[in-house]
């Protein structure tokens, strides 16, 4: 195994967002999409839920609860990331500090955008999601995400397994996006191009 690869992808506090169908317009509202820079989106995350009309923090929204400050793992419900295909959504989540999102299901484009930005999304059955929310209702949770062994570890030797696409798993473990993965094959691509020029020079 590559010595730079560590099996634990993330370890930290869990924030339970008990909502279905969290769409990208709630994750990062449209008024914050004017910038193509990847910076400065943390404060805009869940803006309409997180702040009151006067701009002060909404004390009833879970991200503002004192016990969840500094959370790195977000727990939610079904169809997380639905709506428009804005890449700003994973940027905002990541810049806030979330490394892992656990939910019953995810919108496909959102899932791929997150994976390409180095975030781990874990889909579990409704029964397992219910049990994780039950854990969170018992008090603040500190979980460890072992990506190599595909386990969520709760402490006291308790763990829950999860499935993940092998290609996405390897890219996350290696810290590579789609471009980085392709660049690993640069020697083979170069050899192919040289061979093609030799065998088919008329192609230029």
TrEMBL record:
Belongs to the LeuD family. LeuD type 1 subfamily. It is an enzyme of class 4 (lyase). Pathway: Amino-acid biosynthesis; L-leucine biosynthesis; L-leucine from 3-methyl-2-oxobutanoate: step 2/4. This is 3-isopropylmalate dehydratase small subunit. Its EC number is 4.2.1.33. Gene3D superfamilies: Aconitase, domain 4. It catalyses: (2R,3S)-3-isopropylmalate = (2S)-2-isopropylmalate. It comes from Alkalimonas mucilaginosa. The lineage of its organism: Bacteria, Pseudomonadati, Pseudomonadota, Gammaproteobacteria, Alkalimonas. Heterodimer of LeuC and LeuD. It comes from the Bacteria. GO terms for molecular function: 3-isopropylmalate dehydratase activity.
């Amino acid at each position: 195994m590559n010595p730079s690869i560590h099996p634990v992808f993330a370890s930290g506090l869990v924030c339970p967002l008990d909502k279905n169908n969290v769409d990208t317009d709630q994750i990062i509202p449209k008024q914050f999409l004017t910038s193509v820079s990847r910076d400065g989106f943390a404060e805009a995350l869940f803006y309409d839920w997180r702040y009151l009309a006067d701009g002060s923090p909404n004390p009833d929204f879970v991200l503002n609860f004192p016990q969840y400050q500094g959370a790195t793992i977000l727990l939610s419900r079904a169809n997380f990331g639905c709506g428009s295909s804005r890449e700003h959504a994973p940027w905002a989540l990541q810049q806030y500090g979330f490394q892992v999102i656990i939910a019953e299901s995810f919108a496909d484009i959102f899932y791929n955008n997150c994976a390409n930005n180095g975030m781990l999304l874990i889909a579990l059955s409704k029964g397992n999601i219910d049990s994780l929310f039950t854990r969170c209702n018992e008090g603040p949770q500190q979980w460890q995400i072992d990506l190599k062994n595909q386990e969520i570890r709760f402490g006291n030797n308790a763990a829950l397994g999860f499935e993940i696409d092998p290609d996405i798993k390897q890219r996350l473990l290696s810290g590579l996006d789609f471009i980085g993965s392709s660049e690993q094959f640069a020697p083979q691509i170069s050899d192919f191009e040289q061979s093609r020029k030799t065998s088919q020079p008329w192609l230029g």
